[in-house]
Write a structure and sequence with these properties.
Number of domains: 1
Number of strands: 0
Order of helices and strands: HHHHHHHHHHH
Shape: globular
Helix content: over 70%
Length: about 280
């Protein structure tokens, strides 16, 4: 299989799995292993391209909301009152919820992914957090909007996002589960999760770009690598945008149970494949 086709497949996979509650990291690790992609084409630079692609999808889809939130946040600083409007309140809640994930991601993400990016670990996490998603569906009252959350609930969702550095958990899955536990309705839980992911994804992308520039300066990245990254970026952005739109419509009248079934089915398949190849 040509490497550029592999970049297309990985970009599509990132665009789908970053937003569906099924674990983007887990899917990328499994696909990369299955396609035997050379290590020279992997690592932080390619991860940065994929993350920036999905970040672009979030920014475009939620552009109006993001501009409104940023404007309200700046206005709240001027008047020194964090909840002067519902938008400023939501902006500060997102900022608060970003802290745990930013801390864990900055200090521990690379170490955790290097140690836990194994098929068996991914399969176990797919099953465990499928159970968490089921509990969230059962226990959540689904009565609240994101603007009705308090700081404790927002921080709870942020802590959940920090757990997503473990491959197989799913950032969108764990944050939407936490949102349901906090009694958000499904669409609001997804909206808060996606808005919350933007700063983290932007940070991860920026760090990856910095590392890519260092490698380019050393001469370890060539034109073919750049094409590889661009294709992954474009596919992740296009598919990611469509996936966000699909999920927001889907959650207006459906539960998360189809994704629970998919997670368990994929985990069983991975575990069976590992046993067969041993």
């Amino acid at each position: 299989m040509p490497d550029l086709l592999k970049a297309v497949i990985l970009g599509i996979a990132q665009g789908l799995t970053e937003f569906l509650p099924i674990s983007s990291t887990g899917h990328l690790v499994l696909l990369e292993n299955a396609m035997h992609l050379p290590e020279s084409r992997l690592g932080l630079p390619f991860d940065a391209a994929l993350h920036l692609g999905t970040l672009l999808a979030i920014l475009i889809f939620f552009w109006a909301a993001i501009v409104r939130l940023v404007t309200a946040w700046i206005g709240s600083i001027r008047v020194r009152k964090w909840d002067v409007t519902t938008d400023s309140r939501l902006a500060w809640l997102i900022a608060l919820a970003t802290v745990p994930g930013a801390f864990v991601g900055f200090f521990f993400e690379t170490t955790i992914e290097n140690k836990l990016s194994q098929p068996v670990t991914i399969a176990v996490m797919l099953i465990v957090f499928a159970g968490v998603l089921v509990l969230a569906e059962v226990l959540g009252t689904r009565k609240l909007r994101a603007t009705q959350l308090g700081p404790k609930e927002a921080l709870f969702v942020g802590i959940a996002q920090a757990i997503a550095v473990i491959p197989g958990v799913s950032r969108s899955g764990i944050t939407m589960s936490a949102g349901l536990f906090a009694n958000l309705d499904r669409e609001q839980a997804a909206t808060f999760a996606f808005l919350l992911s933007a700063p983290i994804v932007a940070g991860a992308g920026a760090k990856g770009v910095y590392d890519a520039l260092k490698e380019a300066h050393r001469g370890t990245l060539g034109i073919e690598d750049l094409r590889f990254f661009i294709i992954g970026f474009v596919m992740a952005a296009l598919v990611g945008y469509m996936t966000v739109g699909f999920l927001m419509r889907f959650l207006r009248s459906h539960t998360f149970y189809p994704f629970v079934a998919y997670r368990v089915g994929l985990a069983v398949f991975v575990l069976a494949a590992v046993l067969v190849t041993r």
